Amino acid sequence: MLALLAAALSPGPVRTFDGAAEWWTDHVARTRDLERPIDRAILGATVVDRLGFAFAGAYAAALSALVPSLPAGTLASLAATEDGGAHPRAIETQLGTDGDGLVLSGKKRWVTLGPEGGVCFVVARRAESAGLERPVLALVRVPVGAPGVTVTPLAHMPFVPEIPHAELSLERVRVAPEDVLPGDGYERYLKPFRTIEDVHVNAALLAWLSSIGARAGWPRPVRERLATLLVAARTIAGEDPSSAVTHIALGGLLSAVHALVGEIDPLWASTQGETRALFARDRALLSVASKARAARLDKAWSRLGT
């Protein structure tokens, strides 16, 4: 942890990249020796010039934490959202069988890093759960270049446009049994990923802000608070993402991060102009899914009976 804090408090030169592919090559080379995904998210964020690449590194790290068998250096995506959302009842993509084995069919509408990744982890309902009130889900590993897979890039968002998204079409894609990950697709993968992603993204955000503060000469008390919250985020990353206590600790972290981001608004005047403009453009990312996070925190407190 001390080496990571040092990198955040005294970062190297900032890096710029011509798109996600160039960024990913640099990110893998820079972080390949780090075992924990959270550490890769933190270190990668200290050298990038914009929030989008810090987020992308955190997203990739979160997927590695969710699926430890993912080979190092593989850029992957989680394909869950469909027209009705990502709730289990909204999942229509189906994993079934024919005379030759398993087949996967369906469509996903918002796949982060989909145009750049080599692998998608697709959330699908098992055919045998047809008619059940709540479908049984599976997580299926699918190479992006497999026959029957079509990736259609989507238009860039108005913020963090460096992060590409895509629609994913699956037409009777052949699936090997070993590519169906063990365990329930919702309880073991989709549900905890929301927590894992939040931890990794906020760790990356804190590391990125720390590096900016170091280069811009922000006041030491602010940089100390950033360092303290970064240590907290890394600690939470090692806890059970399904635990109510973890969600409460994460809720406290998110509240502290939100407050600090608001307090440092005046300090952006001392930063380099392009960096300041990029953050003004991209900060809307920090509010995405805020209602879902609040609901998760309320549920956590209820689970504790308080």
Q: Which descriptor suits the 3D outline?
A: globular
Query: Helical segment tally?
Result: 9
Task: Give the mean pLDDT.
Answer: 93
Q: Which secondary-structure class do the elements indicate?
A: alpha/beta
Low-confidence blocks of residues: none
Helix content: 40-55%
Ends distance: 34 Å
Radius of gyration computed on alpha carbons? 20 Å
- The fraction of residues in strands falls at 15-25%
By DSSP, the count of extended strands is: 7
In this structure, how is the largest beta sheet organized? 7 strands, mixed
Order of helices and strands: HHHHEEEEEEEHHHHH
Topology readout:
Blueprint: H1 2-9, H2 20-31, H3 37-45, H4 51-66, E1 76-79, E2 94-98, E3 101-112, E4 119-126, E5 137-143, E6 149-153, E7 165-175, H5 185-216, H6 220-237, H7 244-263, H8 273-282, H9 290-304
Parallel strand pairs: 1-4, 2-4
Antiparallel strand pairs: 2-3, 3-7, 4-5, 6-7
Helix pairs in contact: 1-5, 3-4, 3-5, 4-5, 5-6, 5-7, 6-7, 7-9
Structure description:
- The chain is α/β, with parallel strands linked by helices.
- The chain is built from nine helices and seven strands; from the N terminus they run ααααβββββββααααα.
- The protein has helices at 2-9, 20-31, 37-45, 51-66, 185-216, 220-237, 244-263, 273-282, 290-304; strands at 76-79, 94-98, 101-112, 119-126, 137-143, 149-153, 165-175.
- Strand 2 and strand 3 (101-112) form a beta hairpin.
- The protein is globular and about 65 Å long.
- The mean pLDDT is 93.
Primary descriptors:
9 helices; 7 strands; 46% helix; alpha/beta; 7-stranded mixed β-sheet; 306 residues
